[in-house]
Amino acid sequence: MSSSLIGTRAALRTVIAGLLIATPAVASAQTPRISVSVNGGWQAAPDGLDATTNLQLNRETEEIAARYDFKSGPLFDIGGAWRLTRHLWAGVAISRFSKPGESSITAKLPHPLQFNQPRTVEGSAGLGRRETAGHIQALWDVPLGEALTVRVFGGPSIFSLRQDVVSDVEFSETYPFDAATFTRAKTSAVTQSKLGFNVGADLAYYFHRMFGVGFLARYASASVDLHVNTTGTVSAKTGGFQLGAGVRLLF
Amino acid sequence: MRWLRCTLAAALCLLAIQTRTVAQNTALQTPTPNRLSIAADLPAEISGATTLVAQLTQARELVVSDVHDDTFVAGRRFETLRQFYRGVPVEGGSVTRQMAGAVTISIFGELLTGIDIDTAPALLPVDAARITERIARRDLIAGTQAVLLIMPSVTGRFVLAYRATTQDQMTYYVDANTGEVLRQQSERQDEVGVGTGALGDQKKMITTSAAGAYRPVDRLRPGTIATYDTRGSEAALDRILNAGATDSDFPVDADNIWTDARVVDAHVNVGYTYDYFFKRFQWSGGDGNGRALFAVVHRGLINNAFFISPPSGPERGGAVVFGDTGGGVPVTSLDVVGHELMHGVTDASLRRRTGAGLGSGLFLEAPGTTSFTFNGTVFPCDTTVLVNSITGARVPFWCNGGRFVTASNHPGALNEGFSDIFGTSAEFFFQQPGNGPLRADYVEGEDVLGFGPIRSMNAPGSIAIAADAGAVPYPDNKTRTLNFALVIISGTQTNPTVIDIAPLAFVGGTPVTLFSRGTDSAGVHWNSTVISHAFYLAIEGGRNATSGITVTGVGAQNREQIERVFFRAMTQLMPNNPSFSTAAALIRQSAIDLYGASSAVSQAVNQALIAVGL
């Protein structure tokens, strides 16, 4: 049993090695059925958002307003497609974007001694953000020459957004408590998923029948309802313009 | 107390069969399992308790943790012993022994019994600290670490645990074997409650939680504010003011939502006044340095409120006492509370500087007429005697050249006037100017329905003082003050050695009426409106109705300047027994010191004092 298995793996390695040596740089009569792409890249900064959290403090409502600003950052993307017809492919890709953002916070802290005398404190906090998206794609293959191919694609995307949100602020105060000083923000991570879409193009140059390099441009987006407090949600736009470059494989 | 003594007896019985550990089985008499209360203040009890403590000390189950001298009773000393079990402290177990030399006066304490657990923890202190910091998301207080102890529960169970306190003043108890967080509690005892005042206004109540309920004890401010309730008992009032208050004198509320308006208004308005004095003048608490303030609501006091100076009052720290109107409305409006607390400020500042409070001395006034007429009968000074209706004593009037000698109580009137000034100022500090409920104005006590307004600073004469025959308006000028005839208790007309105030009032030498119900200590409240009217004129400006002099005030937006002038005059410059003229001089000086002689403030103050005849 075990010797038989070793024999099979050895045979496969031989076949692949033979293909690499014998196949010319242009596509052969054997039409590839599967393509794989792996990209590293960059995603544009997601849209910022404003969120307000209301808590109870000193028998009144504590209002925490936070402006979330995000930055562009690195993107990792991997995808595969299966040829349906000569030009039409069905594919799936997964992209991941992770980049901490910054939140500027303004909190109105109820006075411990009197009603309607809030103290305003301001501060900031770094907030983690991670977007993971699964893109289901229909791809249309347009050969531009012997080795150059462009694919246009589009389809639905499922986004999962994990976002740190400001849940409370810590502050220091001393009598007579007419002013307070921001100490730090308490944050918690919330995760939410939402269906969106993606469109884009992939330009690939194959220097080998199976191997090539490519450039990806995609726009993918969804609006996720983030629960930033117990009483409400805020709509957070996820995704954005994505650029990537990497290897292309055909099988 | 009785059951506590019984438990001690039980403990001593148990000692006979076990001396190594504290009594194992006291369930018969202890209300909480495995808990032994010691209350020994009688010789037999002390003897038994002393034996118990000695044996436990020898067994290293009680260890001396503190010894200090009594700060109130000379020669007394307190020795506190903490309970340990196999070298691990037992949370809540301690005994305090009061000694007079070598003699034990009392022993009180709580001990935990029936402990039988392994004292070797599976976790290290650093592990417990990490668990605590992870749960709390805060570091431990700098320089502290998790402390191993034996933690009792009300069920009688014991757990080996670590206790650690984080920087947000939360204390965590972590099971020393499993790492489970057993309990967490806030070290901040202050709670923000809410209460409804007499006018239906909601306000925040700073309270303290204790024994499953809330008490009006505010430790959020630098000086504690505690409010007691006599529940109408004169005996309770007497005890609170003279022997000290107990926990049972606190009103309590289960949900920290207070509805007893007298407690709410007294407690909150004392706090507001505290804030006013602190923010305006950096005067903190009862003595300027954070001394506690004690308020007592006493529904047996009708249409009145008063301040009583230290050493009377809880913790010998003075107190303000607030009554009700005859209709049951608490006399606890902000201006009334501010008025009473200003008496405290006056008293404390004078005592700090002079060793005594503001005096209550008589100053001779313009001589009266040679006679007065009452109900159609003429009473000449030389031949009229005053008969005490209770004792029957007959005393002559003091006459000079056949004219009534008259006097009034200047320090007392200044004391009351300054209290009205700062009660009103506290009102302006927190309320919007205007008329009606919860609006700042220059009348006193107007927010107490069925009680005020009792005095007016802007138009003193608009309110009258009830007298035997008709009424007399409050004075707006020194020439309109009520001066009282004097009677000679002992001595002669030329050399009276003891005099007293007669209920015969003069204004400007003319007899106006009799006040058979009392002379208000020679007009301390009645004549207070002279100085408080000057304060009003210095701020708002206007014309004095008696002198006709018009004053240019500094304006309401600059009221703080005038408040500072008057506050400084009282707390820094005022002597013990000032006359009106002395007070006026030092008020002028205060303005000059603060703002310069040619300043608008000094001019307003000077004009105002001149306008009221000072």
Q: What would you note in describing this structure?
A:
The complex is a heterodimer of chains A (251) and B (614). With 251 residues, chain A is mainly beta. Chain A contains 1 helix and 12 strands, in the order H-E-E-E-E-E-E-E-E-E-E-E-E. In chain A, strand 11 and strand 12 form a beta hairpin. The two termini of chain A are 29 Å apart. Chain B contains 12 helices and 37 strands. In chain B, the strands form 12 sheets. A 5-stranded antiparallel beta sheet of chain B has the order 1-5-4-3-2. A 5-stranded mixed beta sheet of chain B has the order 13-14-18-20-19, with helices on both faces. In chain B, strand 7 and strand 8 (170-175) form a beta hairpin. In chain B, helix 6 (334-354) packs across helix 7. The longest helix of chain B is centred in the middle third of the chain and has 21 residues, at 261-281. Mean pLDDT of chain B is 87; it is low at 1-32.
Quick gist of this model?
The complex is a heterodimer of chains A (251) and B (614). Chain A has 251 residues and is mostly beta strands.
The overall average pLDDT of chain A, rounded, is: 86
Gross morphology of chain A is elongated
Query: What low-confidence regions of chain A span 5 or more consecutive residues with pLDDT below 50?
Result: 1-28
Mean pLDDT across all amino acids of chain B: 87
The largest sheet of chain B has its strands arranged as 1-5-4-3-2
Strand % of chain B is 25-35%
* Class computed from helices, strands and strand pairing of chain A: mainly beta
Helix content of chain B: 25-40%
Number of strands of chain A: 12
Largest interface: chains, residues each: A-B, 13 and 17 residues
How many helix segments of chain B? Answer: 12
What ranges of chain B have pLDDT less than 50 throughout 5 or more consecutive residues? 1-32
Spatial ordering of strands, largest sheet of chain A: 1-4-5-8-9-10-11-12
For the termini of chain B, the CA-CA separation is 62 Å
SS field, number of helical segments of chain A: 1
